[in-house]
């Protein structure tokens, strides 16, 4: 762990690192997790990990890192790792770890997994988790066995990623970010338990805060509205948030016409 800790300290003391590639050759358990956490703590957004042997990779535990609760890493690429198939036990464990991490993580946008690390059942579990709307921020999940491989599971994963990309474009251009919606709900709930004089002041602050977040967002076109409704029906949670955002705007548009 001495060398791993030295690398972790070096990463932590570095300035303006946004992209890093790391070749894992450490024999000692905990080394990979130590360095991975240093990357997450440093705020690096693009991380490539290369495992040179299945033995080393199978001793690693990505769920022992802070990836689930991290909010800075955008891209994790494992594609250059040793391509020989891993054990069935590792495939199942790795897939389960990823599913659990992606249920919580709200920052990762790109994840590339090499052929041997995840098999059909694991990929299906990832797909099922995405269909359950457990992750809205992942925009690219690549589990291809070959560059030209377009199997049915990956095609379905691509479709789920498409819904996420549409949702992100909507939030960027029109809607309130999910975090703001969450804050809005918490604030509304807390106001109900406040004394009247405090309630009034906090309500004014709340409205000002919402106005700041809405400033700069475009009003959605009545032409785009039904198209988005049709697309978002594939993601009920997104559809619900969309209607929450847009119903008052739609009413204003109709009342002004």
Question: What can you tell me about this protein's structure?
Answer:
This protein has helices at 2-13, 31-42, 54-58, 88-104, 120-131, 152-173, 178-191, 196-214, 224-232, 236-256; strands at residues 19-24, 46-51, 75-77, 110-112, 140-142. The chain has 257 residues and is α/β, with parallel strands linked by helices. It folds into three domains: 2-173, Leucine-rich repeat, LRR (right-handed beta-alpha superhelix), CATH 3.80.10.10; 176-216; 219-257. Strands 1-2-3-4-5 form a five-stranded parallel β-sheet. Helix 2 (31-42) links the parallel strand 1 and strand 2 (46-51). Helix 4 packs parallel to helix 5 (120-131). It starts with a helix and ends with a helix.
Brief description of this entry?
The protein has 257 residues and is an alpha/beta fold. The chain has helices at 2-13, 31-42, 54-58, 88-104, 120-131, 152-173, 178-191, 196-214, 224-232, 236-256, and strands at residues 19-24, 46-51, 75-77, 110-112, 140-142. The chain has three domains: 2-173, Ribonuclease Inhibitor (Leucine-rich repeat, LRR (right-handed beta-alpha superhelix)); 176-216; 219-257.
The shape, in one word, is globular
**What would CATH call the architecture of the largest domain?**
Alpha-Beta Horseshoe
CATH topology (fold) name of the largest domain: Leucine-rich repeat, LRR (right-handed beta-alpha superhelix)
CA radius of gyration: 22 Å
Number of domains: 3
Number of helix segments?
Answer: 10
Which strand order spans the largest sheet, edge to edge or round the barrel? 1-2-3-4-5
- Quickly give the structural class: alpha/beta
CATH homologous superfamily descriptor of the largest domain? Ribonuclease Inhibitor
User: How would a textbook summarize the main sheet?
Assistant: 5 strands, parallel
Distance between the termini: 69 Å
User: Would you count the extended β strands for me?
Assistant: 5
- Which percent band covers the strand fraction? 5-15%
Order of helices and strands: HEHEHEHEHEHHHHH
Task: Provide mean pLDDT, rounded.
Answer: 78
Please write the CATH class name of the largest domain: Alpha Beta
Helix content: 55-70%
As residue ranges, the low-confidence spans are 177-192, 208-215
